[in-house]
Amino acid sequence: MRRRILTLVGAMMLLVLVAFAVPLALLVRTVAIDRAVGTATAEAQSLTPLVATADRAALNLSIQQVDATTAADVTLFLPDGGVLGTPAPRTPLVELGARGTSASTDVAGGREIVFAVRDADGTGGAIRILVPDAELTRGVGRSWLLLAGLSVLLLTGGLLLADRLARSLVDATTDLAEVSDRLARGELTARADAAAPAELGVVAGALNGLAARISELLREERETVADLAHRVRTPLTALRLDAESLRDPADAARISDGVDGVQRAVTGAIEQARRRGTDAGVCDAAAVVRDRVAFWAVLAEDTERATAVDVADGPLPVAIGKGDLEACVDALLGNVFAHTPDGTAFAVSLVTRREGGARLVVADSGPGLPAGAAERGVSDGGSTGLGLDIARRTAEQASGALALDRPPEGGLRVVLDLGPAVPDR
User: Fold this and answer.
1) What is the tens place of the pLDDT at every residue in 397-420?
2) Residue 425 CB: number of other CB atoms within 10 A?
3) Residue 388's closest CA among 314, 332, 319, 348?
4) CA-CA distance, 203 to 27, in Å (whole number)?
């Protein structure tokens, strides 16, 4: 953009300067020629009366004086054929002047000017003046240099001003782009410079208003989620009390563990709502996956499911918070238990990606994923249908992606790519 503005301004200024400088240069040259010719003509005309009144010696002295004071060559062709002053050939223009006609023309070396004169007897003669080219163009070269220098100075000044304007526009545009990127990354405190030039300032103000409105909406959402989560804690407390009153210690422990899981999920929802709009965080994917697989291993043993676990040695830092990744792993493993019959084997693997980060794969040998079940809120098992959507949003927050694969032998293979943690700058 900056280069285009400079090119446009430079081209326009160059056209304007050429439109004014070229005619002005020609005018300077014309004025110089007219000045030289006018000076020589005035000197020559001062000799015209002397031809008819002065004798030959006086004429010769006068011509020498004029020839010495002017840069032009002055020659007097007398009616009797004599020549006074600077020797010169008898040109056709001189013959024309002897017959009573004054004229001028351009010749090799300068401008030839002839005046017709008469002696005391009325016989015609001619005064010839040759103004050399150097005299005709005296001062023109210097004037052209000054004119060219002034044009270059004006062009340079115009380009500097255009560059300053272009720089302000480009800087304002770059600032808008950077603020937009920061807002897209969740930095809702980012604000653009509303004092930017012209319409860019209006756009910056609108962007700042949008950021403020988003912050307000997120604040309201956080308050709503926090309030809802707080209300859920009351019945959870009642469930915990009921679980503790059970006679069978195993049932009491099992239900209490379930209540604890729900309590952790509620707490995680509150924490996630409170930190929404900020950086996603960083965690060790290897430690989180091992912990959650160990948690689900008890249920897998109870439902007679063969489990294959292959987790790379950590740490494997990824660009997602620990709570979010735990919720994602729980959602994927919960889908396996919820949508496959007891005894269905499943495998969990976590490996390092070549470009950094980690790849989590959860595969089972169940009936596979029904058509349309990958959409948010869609489920054929009576659940909320948000499990895969949670995993997808987790991948997006971690600059990764979620892929569903249906192997030929059946079942479902969920591949979750997590981007590497970016160190603090």
Assistant:
1) 888 888 888 887 778 899 999 988
2) 3
3) 332
4) 50
